Structures are given as C-alpha cells and as structure tokens.
Amino acid sequence: MQRHVFFVSDGTGITAETLGNSLLTQFEGLEFRKLTLPFVATPEKARATVEYINHIAASDGARPLVFSTTINEAARTVLRDCKGLFIDLFDTYIHSLEQELGVQSTHAQGRAHGMADGGRYTARIEAMNYAMEHDDGQSTRDLSKAELILIAPSRCGKTPTTLYLALQHGIFATNFPLLEEDLEQQRLPKALQGMQDRLFGLTSDPERLSQVRNERRPGSRYASLAQCAYELRQAEQLYRRNHVPFVNSANMSIEEIAATVMQEKALRH
C-alpha cells in the first residue's frame, strides 16, 4: 500500500521532515512517497500547494498525509482545507507551551533552521571547515583543537559521521584511517600519540564492509571478505589495548553513530 506524504513549511521544511519521518517509522508494511514543499509563506503559495495536494488525492483515491510546520496564520488557514490528513505539528505543542510558560509565542518564521543564532551558525561552519580539512588524516594542523577523533579501518563510516557532527552539532571532529601497518603492529597513528582521551573507534561486520568496499574497488584484495575480517579483528584488538571506546557501525545510521559517540564522550554544544 502506497501513500503520498507532504512536508509543508514556510521555512526549509527540515523540522517537518524530521518530526514527520519519526512518526512514519512506526508504520511498517507501507510505502510512502515523500515530497517536501518549503517556503509556503503566503496565502497564494498555500493555495497552489493545496491545488497540488488535491490533485494527488484525486489521482490516488486516498488522502495524502500532510505534515505542516507553517507559522503564517493566513497560509495555515488555506492549507487546512486541503483534501489530505492535515497534521499541524506546531499547533499540537505551541498552545500547551504557551499555557505552561505564561508567554505568547512569537509565531516567527524560520527560527528552527534559519540565521536567528548567528554565533551557533558560525560555529557550525567553522567546525565543518575543520572536518573537511582534517578528513582521513590529511592534515594534522591544529589537531589540538579537535574535540573528537574517529579512528577506523577504511569505509567504516568515519567521514560522514564527522561531517554530521560538525554540521549538526558544531563539534570540531576529525578522523584518521587505521592503515595495515598500524593494525599489524597494533599501534595508533603516530600523530595521535597521547590523544587517547579524544579517540573513538568504529568497527563493522566483515560482510557489510566487504560489500561497501566492493562498490569502490570490485574484486580487489582490499574488498575481500578475508581482508575485511582481518582488519576489523585487528582494529578491535587495538581499541581494547589502548582503552579506546568503539561501536559497530554496520547497522547504524549516521545519526545513531553520532548520538552514541556524543553520549560516550560527553560532547554537548
């Protein structure tokens, strides 16, 4: 069974996507066709949006699901008339918060993912630049600024995790590959000596790692199941020897890996 899902917002739509997708994960056996409609901030744009949603509803013969975080009251009034199940995510919570706090909400647009907090935005950009410069151990400049250093054999998820931590949380994170000589000699990369308190390791399942590496270098020794199993076994031994906490990333999303790392290393921004 397939249902259309719309994430509607007068901002980027990221909040609507995040909250809506979290709710949809609880429903198995359904296929959702998702579309984000950002910057619906005027009645005119809202009417065009409603026309499109109603067209899809008529074509499908089933009501689309519409998750909205639109603040503009005039636009919301129009959107509520769509022929979909309209779920106003802000209305659900704002009234209760106003009552509890004794303060009226500002109903300001774009606060969740805009430029309202300039200092935090700048910090995230700086952290992102740092993560890209230091990706995969390519630079050791200002390594002392790193709040977190991920280490792992190739293709265990180091780079996407450090980039996510930087962009989402403003954490200065970098990562280093564990090369074959590091694994054979059971030693940390030379640049990381004395920095054990900032290290966190990633591992994987041999089958999963072999699959990922074969997408990059099909049929190579690098991607062979035997090589992957050896590297992962040696990496875990290295982590334990150096008291480096680690997690198996094989069946974890980037968000789950990042949350685990932040919890383990007590990183909060």
What do you see in this structure?
The chain is α/β, with parallel strands linked by helices and 269 residues long. The chain has two domains: 2-101, Rossmann fold (3-Layer(aba) Sandwich); 118-265, Rossmann fold (3-Layer(aba) Sandwich). The chain is 46% helix and 15% strand. The strands form two sheets. A four-stranded parallel sheet has the order 2-1-3-4, sandwiched between helices. The chain has a four-stranded parallel sheet with strand order 6-5-7-8, sandwiched between helices. β5 (148-152), α6 (158-169) and β6 (173-177) form a beta-alpha-beta unit. α6 crosses α10. It is elongated and about 65 Å long. The mean pLDDT is 91.
Please render the helix and strand layout as text.
Elements: E1 2-8, H1 14-24, E2 31-37, H2 43-60, E3 65-68, H3 73-79, E4 85-88, H4 89-101, H5 118-133, E5 148-152, H6 158-169, E6 173-177, H7 180-185, E7 199-203, H8 206-216, H9 225-241, E8 246-248, H10 254-265
Parallel strand pairs: 1-2, 1-3, 3-4, 5-6, 5-7, 7-8
Helix pairs in contact: 2-3, 5-6, 6-10, 8-9
What's the short version?
The chain has 269 residues and is α/β, with parallel strands linked by helices. The protein has helices at residues 14-24, 43-60, 73-79, 89-101, 118-133, 158-169, 180-185, 206-216, 225-241, 254-265, and strands at 2-8, 31-37, 65-68, 85-88, 148-152, 173-177, 199-203, 246-248.
Key traits:
269 residues, alpha/beta, Rossmann fold, 2 domains, 4-stranded parallel β-sheet, 15% strand
